[in-house]
Amino acid sequence: xxxxxxxxxxxxxxxxxATNAAIGGLVALTEAAVRRRIARxxxxxxxxxxxxxxxxxxxxxxxxxxxxxxxxxxxLRYVQARASETFETSGEFDLGAVFERPTMEAFxxxxxxxxxxxxxxxxxxxxxxxxxxxxxxxxxxxxxPGIRELSGH
Length: 153
What we know:
21% strand, single chain, 2 domains, alpha+beta, Alpha-Beta Plaits, two-stranded antiparallel ribbon, 153 residues
């Protein structure tokens, strides 16, 4: 990965709907060259997916999980099937996950199911109250209003 790839990724992080031509204008490449680079970044696993950022559609939170030794991989697989994002951590907790459910009752049911798994020692849940998103600065920033603050509830 070179500096041009990094600039392409920054543009896509800013606006995943930016055209290859618009990105090419930012990095001084043709549309076809940008398209080839993006295809390579997808193939090598650098680009995992394209998505949008919205206000939460229900309660959303980060759940940190402490696992018994030897059980982290199994618990991680369970969580990956149910969370929008998962990550392994260092320190006091072994993994984290972002969960969003339509109601607080559904969120609590998900937590109860996770906590009842063999190998889960403890959890800490952080419910998101607000979300700040950096204002757009990419190739199409002047064309649209920016997402500045998205409130949770």
